[in-house]
Amino acid sequence: MSRLALVALAVAGALAAAITGPLHPSSQPVRAASSPPPPAGAKNGEAWAWTQLVNGASHTTEIRFATTEQPAGQCPTAQYKQAGQIRTATMRKVSDPYVTTGGLQQFPTTLCTLQVPDGASDALIEPSTTSAATVHPGNLQLPLPDWPVAGRPRRVAVIGDAGCEVVSPVTGSAANQDCLKGWPLHTLATHAAAQSRPDLVVHVGDYVYREQPQGANDASPGCDAQGQAADWGCLVKDFLRPAEPLLGEAPFVFARGNHEVCTPGKVGRGAEWFRYLATTPQKDNECYTLPQTQVEPQQINAGTLHFILFDSSSADDGTQPDKIQAGLYAKWFDEVNALAANHPTHDYFLITHKPLWTVKQASSTAVTWTNPTLASGLARSAAKALAPNVRLVLSGHLHLYQMLDFANSTRPPQLTVGSSGTTLDTAPDDTKVMGKTVDGQTVKNSISHDVHGYAMLADKGGQWHLTFHDSSGTAWPPDCTLSNGTIEGFACK
């Protein structure tokens, strides 16, 4: 049944119950004790709602609702179905609009959240409880996990580095990406949602690329002036609006990239990250008041599939390891392995925006790969390797697609998806990568594309199948199957 049909059924059921009383006990809404009254006054402003997986102790899914409606400070109610009953709950306010000391509305939103119990379905924002003139997604339905609590998602889409790159303040500069004709994120999101139909979407980081918003050839109010890259308007422009088809299709796992750092001396886009997308959202602009600029590893559960967020946003990109950072990362890799040990028979995917082992360039004699600092941290960890059930490393940062695995190795394959929208890097020649040494091990398979697209991981009979899809949704060969044995790697055909 389509999502629109589900919405129609939910609305029809609610109307019928209001007019005639419930025909069955299971159709009667169970309301929160303090649902807010319908807002008074004319509809105004715009709201965005999405669902994301978080690391809650009693839940794994959260609905988020960010609205510019006035009066500010109001949160709507959401409706969902659980155990045969329609339930409603008032969303919790996390933050009010934030105005900078200079009087600028960096974040003109009220942010509300709702913890959704595992096993719930058919979530809706109740339209009578918000004053927003426009609510996204347009059908007001929010996707919840559709895999069993004791199961795992069957189709996982991976995207990353998806914003439109604008580095010059001059409109039309050759240094800027053509955001009108050469930026495919909305096209990609539309086709991925309609054709690939993922149960879950993983974004490996880097959401806003408009360093100089005024130079974009599609600039619009709220994201058209110097310094607005870290504002709400540019997050909408560079991510929420073009990605809306995917946000309406599946829950997300969000990872932090280097574009989401808290950079001293200017307003970093880490402020957007911590306010809206982090697993624990913060109020105001708290990018600089948090106890550390990087966050220790966090586990996100999707049933029996587990993701570990590894914050590599500030990892050094140099060709030689940063010894101080590597010492910190060694401790974090110990934490990763400790988390994986909690469920030794379950699959874990490590998400680090900056990759452990991605080849940037290749010649007939050598390769240049990244990231030596992260790899050095892993080598200095207690196990000197990732736990056996860490099956994949998911990354972005380099603006290409690449799957790299290793010959006769227990090292998990490295999947890099940094090609979902921004200006592309040139991919290496795979024939010059295979057989070369990367961090002490021989490369078996190297599949690289400098084409905009996304990855799909499909669980078929208990094995993960990997395919690359371009922005039209078309799958490119080969189809690669991840081994379930002690020797890690893909078999591709």
Summarize the structure.
This protein has helices at residues 3-20, 185-196, 232-240, 244-247, 270-277, 323-340, 372-379, 430-433; strands at residues 46-53, 61-67, 77-82, 85-90, 92-95, 110-116, 121-125, 134-136, 141-142, 155-159, 200-203, 252-254, 298-302, 305-310, 347-352, 358-362, 367-370, 390-395, 401-406, 414-417, 437-438, 441-449, 453-460, 463-470, 475-482, 490-492.
Description:
It is a single chain. The longest helix has 18 residues, at 3-20. The protein has 2 domains: 3-142, no CATH class; 155-492, Purple Acid Phosphatase, chain A, domain 2 (4-Layer Sandwich), CATH 3.60.21.10. The chain is α+β, with helices and mostly antiparallel strands. Helices cover 16% and strands 28% of the residues. It has 8 helices and 26 strands. The strands form 5 sheets. The chain has an 8-stranded mixed sheet with strand order 13-14-15-18-20-19-22-21. Strands 12-11-10-23-24-25-26 form a 7-stranded mixed sheet. Strands 5-6-2-1-8 form a 5-stranded mixed sheet, covered by helices on one side. The radius of gyration is 23 Å and the shape is globular. The relative contact order is 0.11.
Question: How would a crystallographer describe the biggest sheet?
Answer: 8 strands, mixed
Q: What value does the average pLDDT take?
A: 90
CA-atom Rg in angstroms:
23 Å
In the residues, how many domains can be counted? 2
How far do the termini sit from each other?
Answer: 34 Å
Q: Number of DSSP strands?
A: 26
Instruction: Flag low-confidence runs.
Output: 1-35
InterPro entries: Calcineurin-like_PHP, Metallo-depent_PP-like, STPP_CPPED1
Pfam family, one: Metallophos
Protein name: Metallophosphoesterase
Keywords: Signal
